[in-house]
Amino acid sequence: MEILTTQQLVGIAKVEIVEKDVSTVAQLIKAESPIVVDVREPEEFAQGHLAGAINVPRGVLEFRVDPTYPAGIPALFDKSAQMVVYCKSGARSALAAQTLRTLGYQSVISMGGGFEAWKVAGLDVVIG
After folding, report:
1. b/e burial code for range 81-99 (CB count within 10 A of at least 16 → b)
2. What is the pLDDT of residue 13?
3. Which of 13, 14, 62, 82 could be disulfide-bonded to 107 (CB atoms 3.0-4.6 Å)?
4. Predicted pLDDT at 78
5. Are 107 and 31 in contact (CB under 8 A)?
6. Do residues 60 and 38 lie in contact, with contact meaning Cβ atoms separated by under 8 Å?
7. Does the annotation mark 87 as catalytic?
8. Dist CA 15 CA 9 (whole Å)
9. From the candidates 87, 94, 97, 111, which is the catalytic residue?
10. pLDDT given for residue 72 in this prediction
Protein backbone atom coordinates (compact mmCIF):
# COMPACT_ATOMS: atom_id res chain seq x y z
CA MET A 1 0.00 0.00 0.00
CA GLU A 2 1.35 3.39 -1.01
CA ILE A 3 1.62 5.94 1.77
CA LEU A 4 0.32 9.33 0.69
CA THR A 5 1.24 12.78 1.90
CA THR A 6 -1.46 15.15 3.07
CA GLN A 7 -0.94 17.19 -0.08
CA GLN A 8 -1.51 14.10 -2.23
CA LEU A 9 -4.63 13.20 -0.26
CA VAL A 10 -6.05 16.69 -0.78
CA GLY A 11 -5.12 16.50 -4.47
CA ILE A 12 -7.07 13.27 -4.86
CA ALA A 13 -10.06 14.81 -3.08
CA LYS A 14 -9.98 17.85 -5.38
CA VAL A 15 -10.26 15.58 -8.42
CA GLU A 16 -13.37 13.93 -6.96
CA ILE A 17 -15.26 17.04 -5.78
CA VAL A 18 -16.72 20.27 -7.13
CA GLU A 19 -14.63 23.29 -6.18
CA LYS A 20 -15.65 26.88 -6.96
CA ASP A 21 -13.80 30.16 -6.42
CA VAL A 22 -14.97 32.68 -3.82
CA SER A 23 -16.68 35.03 -6.28
CA THR A 24 -18.75 32.16 -7.68
CA VAL A 25 -19.58 30.98 -4.15
CA ALA A 26 -20.57 34.52 -3.11
CA GLN A 27 -22.96 34.72 -6.08
CA LEU A 28 -24.33 31.27 -5.29
CA ILE A 29 -24.95 32.19 -1.65
CA LYS A 30 -26.77 35.35 -2.70
CA ALA A 31 -28.87 33.66 -5.39
CA GLU A 32 -29.61 30.22 -3.98
CA SER A 33 -29.05 30.30 -0.18
CA PRO A 34 -27.23 26.96 0.17
CA ILE A 35 -26.33 25.52 3.56
CA VAL A 36 -22.90 26.95 4.38
CA VAL A 37 -20.62 24.82 6.57
CA ASP A 38 -17.36 26.09 8.06
CA VAL A 39 -15.17 23.07 8.84
CA ARG A 40 -12.54 25.04 10.76
CA GLU A 41 -12.08 24.76 14.51
CA PRO A 42 -14.33 26.85 16.81
CA GLU A 43 -11.48 29.25 17.64
CA GLU A 44 -10.96 29.97 13.94
CA PHE A 45 -14.70 30.37 13.40
CA ALA A 46 -14.94 32.91 16.24
CA GLN A 47 -12.27 35.06 14.60
CA GLY A 48 -14.43 35.45 11.50
CA HIS A 49 -16.76 33.46 9.26
CA LEU A 50 -19.32 33.75 6.48
CA ALA A 51 -22.76 35.00 7.51
CA GLY A 52 -25.10 32.14 8.36
CA ALA A 53 -22.35 29.52 8.38
CA ILE A 54 -22.72 26.47 10.60
CA ASN A 55 -19.47 25.57 12.37
CA VAL A 56 -18.79 21.83 12.11
CA PRO A 57 -15.09 21.07 12.68
CA ARG A 58 -13.67 18.64 10.13
CA GLY A 59 -12.90 16.09 12.84
CA VAL A 60 -16.57 15.64 13.79
CA LEU A 61 -18.26 16.21 10.43
CA GLU A 62 -19.30 12.59 9.87
CA PHE A 63 -21.05 12.51 13.24
CA ARG A 64 -22.84 15.86 12.93
CA VAL A 65 -24.44 14.92 9.59
CA ASP A 66 -25.66 11.56 10.92
CA PRO A 67 -29.33 11.64 11.98
CA THR A 68 -28.76 8.63 14.26
CA TYR A 69 -26.05 10.44 16.23
CA PRO A 70 -27.35 12.25 19.34
CA ALA A 71 -25.36 15.42 18.58
CA GLY A 72 -26.31 15.45 14.90
CA ILE A 73 -27.34 18.78 13.38
CA PRO A 74 -30.78 18.46 11.75
CA ALA A 75 -30.05 21.25 9.25
CA LEU A 76 -27.39 18.96 7.76
CA PHE A 77 -29.43 15.76 7.39
CA ASP A 78 -30.89 16.45 3.92
CA LYS A 79 -28.53 14.80 1.45
CA SER A 80 -30.20 16.52 -1.49
CA ALA A 81 -29.71 20.04 -0.11
CA GLN A 82 -27.15 22.28 -1.77
CA MET A 83 -24.16 22.77 0.52
CA VAL A 84 -21.02 24.90 0.45
CA VAL A 85 -18.12 23.87 2.69
CA TYR A 86 -15.08 25.98 3.45
CA CYS A 87 -12.04 26.14 5.70
CA LYS A 88 -9.02 28.45 5.95
CA SER A 89 -7.36 27.60 2.63
CA GLY A 90 -9.47 24.98 0.86
CA ALA A 91 -7.69 21.79 1.92
CA ARG A 92 -9.90 20.70 4.82
CA SER A 93 -13.00 21.69 2.87
CA ALA A 94 -11.88 19.53 -0.07
CA LEU A 95 -11.56 16.55 2.27
CA ALA A 96 -14.91 17.43 3.88
CA ALA A 97 -16.61 17.67 0.48
CA GLN A 98 -15.15 14.30 -0.50
CA THR A 99 -16.45 12.78 2.74
CA LEU A 100 -19.91 14.26 2.25
CA ARG A 101 -19.97 12.93 -1.31
CA THR A 102 -19.03 9.47 -0.01
CA LEU A 103 -21.88 9.73 2.51
CA GLY A 104 -24.34 10.37 -0.32
CA TYR A 105 -24.63 14.16 -0.39
CA GLN A 106 -25.52 15.13 -3.93
CA SER A 107 -24.73 18.84 -4.19
CA VAL A 108 -21.62 19.81 -2.26
CA ILE A 109 -19.24 22.57 -3.29
CA SER A 110 -15.86 23.24 -1.70
CA MET A 111 -14.86 26.90 -1.68
CA GLY A 112 -11.44 27.12 -3.32
CA GLY A 113 -8.95 29.28 -1.47
CA GLY A 114 -11.06 29.11 1.67
CA PHE A 115 -11.78 31.87 4.14
CA GLU A 116 -8.45 33.54 3.40
CA ALA A 117 -9.43 34.04 -0.25
CA TRP A 118 -12.87 35.27 0.87
CA LYS A 119 -11.22 37.95 3.04
CA VAL A 120 -8.74 38.94 0.31
CA ALA A 121 -11.70 39.42 -2.04
CA GLY A 122 -13.15 41.91 0.45
CA LEU A 123 -16.35 39.94 0.96
CA ASP A 124 -18.49 40.24 4.10
CA VAL A 125 -17.23 38.58 7.27
CA VAL A 126 -18.99 38.04 10.60
CA ILE A 127 -16.84 38.23 13.75
CA GLY A 128 -17.75 36.27 16.86
Report:
1. ebbbbbbbbbbbbbbbbbb
2. 97
3. 82
4. 98
5. no
6. no
7. yes
8. 10
9. 87
10. 97
Nearest of 72, 90, 86, 1 to residue 35 by alpha carbon? 86
Question: Measured between alpha carbons, how far is 76 from 5 in angstroms, rounded to an integer?
Answer: 30
Cβ within 8 Å of residue 103, ≥6 positions away? 62, 65, 79
Q: Domains in the chain, start-ordered, CATH in brackets?
A: 6-120 (3.40.250.10)
Choose among 54, 80, 79, 85: nearest CA to 66: 79
Please give the backbone phi and psi of residue 49, each rounded to the nearest 5 degrees, phi first: -160, 170
Q: Please list the ranges in the chain whose pLDDT falls under 50.
A: none
- Rounded Cα gap, residues 63 and 111, in angstroms: 22
pLDDT at residue 28, rounded to an integer? 98
Cα separation of 59 and 48, whole Å?
19
Residues contacting residue 116 through CB under 8 Å, at least 6 positions apart: 88, 89
Predicted confidence at residue 77, as pLDDT, reads 98
Dihedral angle computed from the Cα positions of residues 39, 43, 44 and 48, in that order, rounded to the nearest 10 degrees: 110
